[in-house]
Here is the input.
Amino acid sequence: MSPLAILAITFVVLTLIGVPLFVSVGLTTALALFLIDIPYTLMAQTGYGSLTPFPLLTIPMFVLAGRLMEVGGMANRMIAIATNLVGAYRGSMGLVTVFACMLFAALSGSGPATTAAIGSVTVPAMRRDGYDTPFAAAITASAGALGSLIPPSNLMIIYGLVSETSIPRLFLAGLLPGFLVTMLLMITTYIIARRRNYGGGGERFSWKPFLQAAWDGKWSIGAPILILGGIYGGVFTPTEAAGVAVFYSLFVGAFIYRELTLQKFLEALRFTALLTGILILLTPTLAFGQLTAFYDVPAAVQAGITSITDNPILVLLLIGIFYIFIGTFMESLAQIVLFTAVFLPLVSSLGVDPVFFGIFTVITCEIGFLTPPLGANLTVAARISGISMERISVAVLPFILAYIVGMLILIVFPDIVLFLPDWLYGEAK
Here is the structure.
């Protein structure tokens, strides 16, 4: 039996019997080092190196900023703005949820964090408006995944570090696809809500309450303008922007809205520590990614796929199917670290821009957020709504289809992704 087959069987068996992913990858990597007689110090060196890049600080700081904005009252004001903008129509509360998640996504950088922040308010509101609970939870889970596509995005930061791609270009490339997927989710929500006669009560849209809500929430709306405007205006780097976001959320929550207490601040720190603990995956997965070069895995994959087709669209479709499947049981962070090194050389040889492939990868990870048994967003939505993950998994299927449609549109029209970064920074060399 070949070493690659032994490693594959080891990893699959460890994963299937429920061993934590970082342990499965770590043990498989240790076995790979043993089989090709490489010192185990590679693991220690990679572990140290994986946690030293300065941009990695961006992830916990954006998670902390998003949590502080949630508990400090900024998320509620965003929902108020979205509610008054949409008005009371069929499916209006569902549309508000999607729109509010889009706004909050520009602050949190995380899909599960966005789901928790917005869903804790909108799921009870949708219930009161007559929505059945699985549908309400499915809207929240699917819209919460926008937190990984609309910048700033933790997954884009990881992809940028692994692939050595410009993080500001990735952030800018996510804007138009983020708006596209938002519209597809809103269309899906409206069609289902109209067929089931959900919502429609309350006040119709009028300018006065909307302008009042916008004025009350001006500090909330100012956050994404400050963060993204500062990055693209060249005032500060993404990492510095994350620090600014933390300071801004502290200041607004404590001194403007006066809803941020010491207890809430400590809870936000605890939430951040738990959520960013997933970075423990970096050490074994990066070491495993380096070993793929020793085993010529990228070359083998390239030869295997190009023997079937060398059409970039078909290759991306094959990779997308694989990513969606693997996302059902693998954390998105590990998925990006492990497979970017395998697939990026292949798609680059076919003329696919690394920035485009990053956005493509993030969208497939978002679908992974919505597919059991792992489904991070489904888990959060189930906890918020108090129903089983199985019931949400059925209700979320139309929204998964919306994401797949969005992915297909981007594959066929890649300029949607590349237009803004090429316009602002010039075409990548």
